[in-house]
Specification:
- The chain has two helices and seven strands.
- It has helices at 16-32, 92-108; strands at 3-11, 40-44, 57-63, 75-78, 83-90, 121-124, 137-144.
- Strands 4-1-3-2-6-7-5 form a seven-stranded antiparallel beta sheet, with helices on one face.
- The protein is globular.
Length: 147
């Protein structure tokens, strides 16, 4: 289903700078609003293979329960619909390769065609694993498919 989120936008190279953005900006923001254990989403708006690193945009999102709005963040709706979904567990350095492999496998099925009108995203459900010592985390990779 569609989900309403508030988000903080990051612009710059992916990889470790993005991890720092989550740790130094997003996590404290979530804590300030009592949303640390709410479902979160990570939406890459640009493909780093096609966009210069300094111009890559990324939205760190938190799901908003009905009636809640945050005065310090814009809102948007992540579209519902058909998605291919797989589980990921690893470090930030591994997620790009996992995305590439997942897309290749999902789109190898002739019944699946990517829906370019909706962005791919990572879903971090309530209670998602993150080990601050190792940097290992878990999420779902969600690839939008045409109906």
């Amino acid at each position: 289903p569609a989900v309403r989120v508030a988000y903080l936008r990051y612009t710059g190279p992916f990889g470790e700078p993005l991890g720092r953005f989550w740790r130094s900006t997003v996590a404290p923001w979530l804590g300030d609003h009592g949303l640390v254990d709410c479902p979160r989403y990570a939406v890459a708006l640009d493909d780093p293979a096609e966009t210069a690193p300094e111009f890559c945009r990324y939205d760190a999102c938190v799901e908003l329960r009905p009636g809640l709005s945050l005065p310090d963040a814009p809102e948007k709706t992540l579209a519902g619909g058909r998605y291919a979904v797989t589980h990921f567990k690893g470090a930030g350095a591994d997620i790009g390769r996992a995305w590439d492999e997942f897309k290749r496998e999902a789109l190898a099925n002739p019944m699946n065609r990517a829906d370019a009108t909706r962005p791919s995203f990572e879903h971090y459900p309530r209670g998602a694993v993150y080990d601050a010592r190792t940097g290992v985390f878990a999420c779902e990779l969600c690839l939008p498919l045409e109906s």
